[in-house]
Each structure stands twice: as structure tokens, then as C-alpha cells.
Amino acid sequence: MGSLTLRDHAERILLATVDDMQSVQTNTERSARSRSHGSETSTTDTTKISSLDEASEAHAIDRLGSGFDLLEVVSEYRALRASVLRLWRDSEPDADERDVEDVTRFNESLDQSIAKTVSSYTKRVDQSRDMFLAILGHDLRNPLNSIAMSASLIPRIGHPEPEAVSFATQICSNAVQMGRMIGDLLDYTRTRLGAGMPVEPAPMDLKPLCRGLFDEFRTAHPKCTFRFFSEGDGTGDWDADRVRQAISNLLGNAVQHGDASAPIELRLTGVDNEVSVAIHNGGSPIPPGELAKIFDPLVRGSSGDHPVKNRPGSIGLGLYIAREVAKSHGGSIEVVSTRDAGTNFTIRLPRQSSVSHGQPILDTTKIQTM
């Protein structure tokens, strides 16, 4: 870029900065603004801050489109700050008791602009990445289905060799795991892009669903001890497939991270207008530093003491998806983990779900406006 192009947004940003500096700001407003990194504004300076935010956002989007990385964008602000202060100093102004206040307000406004620029830049990068993952996952389904279908037909053609049947069976098994991972990936991008977890609630009973999962896991993991408890009414309006997915993810998490010598308990409790499902396992507790972000994608096991251990057919999104399933039904999920009591995940679901459907993740209008 030439020097004029590099300075394309400088005038707009500086004029918005001047307007912001000239606005009245109380000590309370300054304190609130410093704590929130400029994200909160008072009623007296909303317009000023808005113009500064708009200029900063436009600059971020333009620089992203021009291939600038985030460090380069922030470096521009460092150069802008240094240039303005140097020009002010070189003008040899007469000393004034308001100089310190003016420099402080200038730095505050520029910090506000940087915060907005970084936020807009990273948000746009995140949206682009998530959209790429959504399109990738969507487009991978067709060739994967073709592979699985072709493999399933091999044993039916003539009299294939036993070895060929074995290979075909392995391909089908791997295709199922890949399909599960692609499904998790699409669920992840759908929620990240604001479309929400798609659910279709219908009258159902959680007791037979939990009993079926209990039997399934007990058969699949014969070395583990499973216990099932049920109390109260388990009926309500939920999406059976999604709830099954969430509970299955939590049971799989218990198998993966729990102590094999300690029983895994699945407990269903129905009370008044709510039904809860709790999964308990023994073993090492979740580190306190990870407990607060346990439901964030790809977080647990990120430390050196707790390396990543994903289940077969999993990309580490199980707890995240379980949380989104609970939220999509108007419910919640919580976790308690101690060395003495073990780890306990609890999903709470209202009997009547209030579902709001978001925009489809591959909507053409949404893609064009990103």
C-alpha cells in the first residue's frame, strides 16, 4: 500500500476521536468505560462513541479484506498514537493545566477504537472460519454416504472373499464414526453462527430412553459398572434424538474420564415442571481452572497434566453439544467435581420446551453479509 492508502481511515478515526474528547465525561462514566474496555457507553456520549466505533469497525473490515493480520492492524494504531503525540509536542504548545486531561482523553478514545477494531476483526475471522467448517462438513456428507453405501453392497455381490467382506465392514464402521464427527461439527458451527441447535419437541418419556442408553453402554463397556435409578414422572415435550445425544455424550465422557473401578450412575428424577438427568462417575476431579470453561469446545484435557483423550468417533465437542441441547430446550446443565464426591453432570429440562429456531447456517443472505 502507498502512504495515502495506509492513511485512508485515519482522518475519520481522528475526527471521531476529537468528537469523543470534546464530549462531557463524568468520573463514573470514565470508570465504567475503563472497566468494560469501552463496550459500555452512557446516554450522554452514545453518539460520539458510536461514530468512533463505526470508524474503527470499518477500518477493521477493510484491513481484513486487504490481508492484514491482527498485529499489523494494532501496529497501525500504535503508529497513529505516536504520530499525533509527536506532532503535538513538535508544535511547542504553551503549557496548559488541561494538557494532562487532553492527553488522557485522547488515549482513552484511541484505546476505545483499538478495542472495537480488535473485536470486529476477530468476530469476522471467527465467522469466516465457522462458515468454512459448516460448508466443509455439509459437503463431506455426500461423498461419505457414497463410500458407506458402496462398502455395504460389497458383501451382497456374488460370493466375495471373506477378507473383502472384512474390509467392507471396517469401511462401514469408520464411515459411521466419520458421520458422527461431521454431525458434531455441523452442530458446533450451527450454534456458533447463531442458527441454534435444531430441535423438534414432541411428547415422550425419558425413562425408556435412559434405560435404553444404560443397557447400550453396559453392553459396550463390560469392564465398567453401570447403575440406573429412576424416580418420579419422566414425561415431557422434548426432542428425543437430541436428548439422547446429550445424555450419550455425558455417559461417554464418564467412561472416558472416570475411574474404571468406580460405578457410573445414571439417575432420572422428575419433579413438578422439571425433569433432571444426572450422570455421576468417580476418578480424578476436573481441575478447578478448567471447571468454569468445561462446556466450551475443545477445552477439557488441554493442560499438560490432563492431555487430550477423545473417544473414537469424537472431535471433543460432546460437552459443548450437551449444553447446547439443554439450552435449546430452555433447560440448563451444571457440573460439580470434587476428589471425595467424584464428578456429577446434571441436565435440567422443563417439561414444556420453548423453542426458537434460528437462521439456517448455509443461508445465502447470511453468507453474503458476512
Automatic annotation (TrEMBL):
EC number of this enzyme: 2.7.13.3
Keyword field: Kinase, Phosphoprotein, Transferase, Two-component regulatory system
Reactions listed under catalytic activity: ATP + protein L-histidine = ADP + protein N-phospho-L-histidine
Biased composition (Polar residues): 39-50
Keyword Ribonucleoprotein: no
GO molecular function: phosphorelay sensor kinase activity
Protein name as it appears in the record: histidine kinase
Organism the protein comes from: Humisphaera borealis
